[in-house]
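debug: dumping io for the single-chain case to check the tokenizer round-trip. Nothing else runs in this session.
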Amino acid sequence: MQTIEDLKQYTFKALLENSIKKFEKEKALSLVDGEPISYRELYEKSLVISNLLKNSGLKKGDKVAIYSSSMPQWGIVYFGIVNAGFIAVPLLPDFSANEIETILEHSETKVVFVAEKMKARLDTIKEDLIEILFKIEDFSLFYGNIDKKQLSLNPLSPEERKMLEEIKIREEDIASIIYTSGTTGRSKGVVLTHKNIVYNAVQCQTVHRVHRRDRALSFLPLSHVYEFTIGFVMQMLNGSAVYYLGKPPTVTSLLPAFRKIRPTLVLSVPMIIEKIYKNKVLPELTKTDLTKKLYQKPFFRKILHRIAGKSLNKTFGGKINFFGFGGAKVDPEVELFMKEARFKYAIGYGLTETAPLIAGSGPKNTIPGTIGPVLEGVELAILDPDPETGIGEIVAKGENIMQGYYKDEALTKSVFTTEEDSTGPGWFKTGDLGIIDTKNRLSIKGRLKNMILNSAGENIYPEDIEFILNQHPLVTESLVVEDGNGLVALVQLDNEKLEKEKGEGFTKIAGNTINEIKNDLLYLQEEVLSEIHFFVNQKVNRISKLSAVRYIQEFEKTASQKIKRYLYGKSKSDEENTQSELNKKNSEE
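debug: decoded output
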């Protein structure tokens, strides 16, 4: 475990210099199918990038964007940017050309490193917006008004090395401006310093210790702070190796990677394990009448879960000691399975604004239904708690809290408490609802903005209803909204499973005309929606009952796989606006 005594200061420069002293020859970064580079090679390549940027005419505090999927070069470029005193602006791979253009203008970024396969999207934005464009795979120049003599990627001269190593980086220097792709639809530039991020990575070690022999398999975007701080910075801090999938995370790409790398550490979003549970584990455990009956008994269910857990661990390479979940709440039923299966999962909670972790549980102390203890070095409180339930808005203090939103003083002011607030000044308001128990463990109830207040003044938490909806075997994802007639569930169905379960019906319509097929499919769909409606209303309380369940083909999502709630309104007109937004998105792509 590395501490401030090892680093001397919370900066990326101090972190990397400490790592090359202790882990110089250890493997650092690699593609799953590539050749690893060592910590020494990582350091040397990052110096080359720093020198390249200095020779490009940049001054301290200038911004450099990274627009690429996760790969070893991403981390090399990041270190090269921030260790030379520049500011990194990571761009999410799913940002549209319009979003990228807006961000580059807002952040005043003129230099970009882009992956070759993503360059086409940049070709559609304003011509003069990007002055210098580098290819991230080999650091070569796509275009820019630079003397080619200044673009050397050769090892540094003693004078160049001395100049770069003497650059002073302070903890309070800005390291990143991270533009979120949130569920509210508005991208904000979150300003994070060296200390915000490195401090958080150091404190994350109190949740789980990482060692130099650990192997991490990475398939989430590095431009998302969750993967960046925990999946990259925390690993670089401790001398472990990170392997990047290098392709979209599908079953056909992930399974061979798990078998080859046999990772000890993986970060994921809950959706992946939830799909495995619903589509593979649960059907297998309940495929016969006998196992279906046994599964209803807690004693036998635990035994079946334990057997399934051994198989699951083997699927992931057999060496997992930390399978971390973040970015969204885990389905309670799935979490119970993982706990009883003795699967080594971990849960964390945080935001981009908190760099990110503020509470979490390691594999040894997860408790279903709770996130876990507040992270050491962070203070959490509940703002305006409900007198009956104790639920209120989660607020946080700590060295990991952002400096504010870039060029938006009013918005920054709005998310921090003032003297008039009951908890006192200086707390960051997360916008999430939760409760902290007597053992300092945090539980999340949902988003403050998502909470629905009914006509009787009662609080309804749509996330609770969505968890029940998602337990239905034919529902892949859901969203609960309010319209004039009450609560409405929008559901995405598992069409493959629907076809299998309704096989006879599909066989009958195979020879019909197109219109007849459409009508029969709609009938089957309506039948399933009615079944889901009944299923949910049998399980929820009086105020949470649904008035309708509607089908949606596919939800629009953020990079962390959260549904963009702002696209799904409360009324018919909102639905039309939603479709307009989706059409606009599709036309850009």
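debug: round-trip ok. The chain has three domains: 4-29+36-211, 269-447, 452-588.
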